[in-house]
Amino acid sequence: MSICGLDFGTSNTTLGTIEGHAPVLAVLEAEYTTIPSAIFYEVDGAVLIGRRAIEAYVDGAPGRLMRSLKSVLGTSLIDETTRLGRERTSFRDVIAYYLGAVKRRAEQATGRELRDVVHGRPVHFVDNAPDADRKAEQTLQQIAREIGFDDVTFQFEPIAAALDYERQIASEEVALIADIGGGTSDFSIVRLGPARHGKADRSADILANDGVRIGGTDFDRQLSLGVVMPLFGFGSAMKRAGLDVPSSYFHDLATWSSINRMYEPRVIADIRQVRQEASEPALIDRLVRVVDEQRGHTLAMEVEDAKIALSDQRRADIPLEWVAPGLSAAIGRPDLVSHTGQLADRIAARIKNCLTQARLAADDIDAVFLTGGSVRLAHVRNAIKKAVPSARIVDGDTFGAVGKGLTLEALRRYGPRD
Ligand SMILES: Nc1ncnc2c1ncn2[C@@H]1O[C@H](COP(=O)(O)OP(=O)(O)OP(=O)(O)O)[C@@H](O)[C@H]1O
Ligand SMILES: [Mg+2]
């Protein structure tokens, strides 16, 4: 019977166990220790997770792809059902299936039965809604028990990342931990040091926590709405003066967790009606094509790929030839900044809150530890650096720091147990 740390992310998931005295992430798919938080329900009833789920969808297998499932926690959608193959399934059960499969894979990879878990959680699943936040954690707690865990406790994701970082420092410091993921951005200010690492109670070392429900998927949405959706009719006029094509379709299509809503027969019928009354029906034809062929995730992935490419290139193409001959979009870094700069500023604004909570000035922060995929966005990094200009920047294990830290926390809380 073993302990583990589980980082169920909006975009990627990891699970760590203790080997010797160190946290080691289990191999969850092929040779990878990270697995995309994606699940594909084939029409014939087969269910795939991770990269294989995404590949099946991209290859055109008939079925439904689900991503960003964590975003549904704490919202009313969690108990809503969606049509997957012949049946309707609740989002809650989809998450349970996914996490159950991850647990089984980790058990296979490590040869151990996993019984006790420290589960990661963002500082806020939902902004300014303590009840929804509690409900989100309760849902994860119930799911964890249902899939076979006995002891289930939670730790904030940035605190977990701090524990991972603490293993590499030689002297005491006050660190700002920034975990900028797919769905949330979280910050903690923590007193760290080799002498503190083994202490049983670290609560006095945690000086502040704050977070906001903004992550990479929101950057994808804003980029899509700014650059791609106008090519599909977003912002175009209806024949009746003063009216635009309804914007809700474009918001749903640009938002990972609501793409599947577009495939409800009622929505498709409505869009066809809108086409009749649109002043530029050729644009709506493109929308109809994407919805009819259920290619919403393909579009979202192309936007995400372009965003990622801009981390080390100046320009990126979004290939749209498959929608209409000759159609394409290109984005440059300035476009990315103009469409998502506000999000970066809103993320960095949480640092001020943390400093106030901790009663510290920006200059009191010795180091900033960066983790999470979205720290690769240059304007996000710059916004964070600007808030604590004198701090040393430390790049952590982008996709593994939280999972390893949760595993260290499991060792501290439960002991080795096997
Ligand atoms: N090189 C890159 N440049 C920009 N963004 C990137 C890059 N690589 C990954 N991302 C983005 O990082 C996000 C995923 O990061 P990560 O795996 O840390 O999130 P997560 O842990 O699943 O989410 P959360 O912690 O918010 O629940 C995605 O939105 C992805 O597009
Ligand atoms: Mg994360």
Provide an overview of this structure.
There is one protein chain. With 418 residues, the protein is of the alpha+beta class. The chain is globular and about 70 Å long. Helix content is 39%, strand content 23%. It has 12 helices and 18 strands. Strands 1, 2, 3, 4, 10 and 11 form a 6-stranded mixed sheet that branches. It starts with a strand and ends with a helix. The chain has 2 domains: 3-171 and 396-414, Nucleotidyltransferase, domain 5, CATH 3.30.420; 217-337, no CATH class. Helix 4 crosses helix 12 (401-414), helix 5 packs antiparallel against helix 10 (333-358) and helix 10 packs parallel to helix 11. The protein has helices at residues 51-58, 91-110, 130-146, 157-166, 216-228, 248-254, 265-277, 281-292, 296-309, 333-358, 378-387, 401-414, and strands spanning 2-8, 12-19, 22-25, 35-36, 38-42, 47-49, 63-67, 81-84, 87-90, 114-121, 151-156, 173-180, 185-192, 206-212, 315-319, 328-332, 367-371, 392-395. A hairpin with a 2-residue loop joins strand 2 and strand 3 (22-25). The structure holds adenosine-5'-triphosphate and magnesium ion. Magnesium ion (MG) is lined by residues 9, 157, 179, 181, 372, 402.
Structure, briefly:
By secondary structure, the chain is an alpha+beta fold. The chain has twelve helices and 18 strands.
CATH class of the largest domain equals Alpha Beta
* CATH 2nd-level architecture of the largest domain: 2-Layer Sandwich
Overall SS class: alpha+beta
- Specify the overall morphology: globular
Percentage of residues in helical conformation: 25-40%
CATH level-four homologous superfamily name of the largest domain: ATPase, nucleotide binding domain
Distance between the termini: 6 Å
Largest sheet: 6 strands, mixed
The SSE order reads: EEEEEEHEEEHEHEHEEEHHHHHEEHEHEH
Q: Beta-strand level of the residues, as a percent range? A: 15-25%
Mean pLDDT, nearest integer?
96
By DSSP (H or I, 4+ residues per run), the number of helices equals: 12
Bound molecule kinds, no repeats: adenosine-5'-triphosphate, magnesium ion
Number of strands: 18
Low-confidence stretches: none
